[in-house]
Design goal:
Length: about 300
């Protein structure tokens, strides 16, 4: 059989991403590297459910199979192992941030290799490589100045990294990525809580960032941060000290009620976020009530 150009092309796997004409420039080491973007259209992204963590699940298509749009939101420099949201590549970091990121290059690479050995930054990214890039980004933002609003970005990165690890667990359940996901969920809780503390005491502004995500399909804004802080505390917060947990849950319940005006009509809030907030409020109230009933019964005995 004579293989024509059309036959050869039909044998290739359909493209999911492409490299832009303009290469990326690392703001730290100043070297250039290819900028990979995800292609859109042609049925690549089939939106599925929105989870309670505001994560959009995309359904596999017959032509492209399962795709992971999240992995294309990060740029990772193969030379200095720094990674950022693509939107932050246009910022000019101060010299202190540059020095801190470059000095930490080998430690960052070593830390990521513990979880994602043999990851690649110089080829079309896979789910595995994309997750490694997110971890590189998490460690990079630890070293930059407050002007980057790093804490809330670390929260978003850690949350997305937990999602990606669960995707990896679905593909290879024998590698304990579900356990690793739990670690990143707890990191996300810490960073979300810290970002609100820093905003209140004016240590670091979070309202300056343009997109709070947490996923790539919709920006749920500051209200989404309040909601996710409560949800992460409810799902992944510590459970050893019951009194401390109840104190935290009560704080989350009050914050959600105040922000979302639960019990009143609210056309200003996004519909899905309001619905999830009501469900979380009910779950918080239920756990608090049940814990108080048990404590009251124990005291009687």
């Amino acid at each position: 059989m004579i293989r024509t150009k059309k036959t050869v092309e039909s044998d290739k796997k359909p493209a999911i991403s492409y490299y832009t004409k303009q290469p990326a420039v690392c703001p730290f080491c100043k070297k250039t590297f290819p900028h990979e973007e995800m292609l859109s259209g042609s049925g690549r992204m089939i939106a599925g459910e929105l989870t309670d963590e505001l994560h959009r699940v995309f359904e596999p298509s017959a032509r492209y199979g399962k795709i992971y749009p999240l992995i294309y939101a990060i740029g990772a420099c193969p030379f200095c192992q720094a990674a950022l949201f693509w939107s932050d590549f246009s910022l000019n970091p101060d010299q202190k941030s540059i020095d801190a990121v470059l000095d930490d290059m080998h430690e960052r690479e070593k830390a990521v290799s513990v979880i994602f050995p043999h990851y690649q930054l110089t080829k079309c990214r896979t789910l595995y490589d994309g997750a490694a890039m997110y971890y590189l980004a998490l460690l990079t933002y630890e070293k930059v100045s407050r002007g980057y609003s790093p804490t809330i970005k670390e929260g978003i990165l850690a949350l997305r990294l937990a999602w990606l690890c669960m995707d990896l667990h679905a593909l290879c359940p024998e590698h304990n990525f579900d356990y690793i996901a739990q670690v990143f969920y707890r990191k996300a809780l810490f960073f979300y809580q810290q970002s609100l503390i820093y905003e209140m005491d004016r240590t670091e502004s979070i309202t300056a960032i343009s997109n709070f995500g947490p996923d790539i399909d919709k920006n749920y804004g500051y209200d989404g941060v309040i909601y996710l802080t409560g949800l992460l505390e409810f799902k992944y917060g510590q459970k050893e000290d019951i009194r401390q947990r109840l104190t935290k849950l009560n704080e989350c319940k009050r914050a959600i009620a105040r922000i979302f005006g639960l019990g009143k009509s609210s056309k200003a809030k996004p519909g899905p976020l309001l619905e999830h907030s009501r469900n979380l409020y009910d779950s918080l109230a239920r756990e608090i009530k049940e814990a108080n009933v048990i404590e009251f019964t124990d005291d009687d005995e």
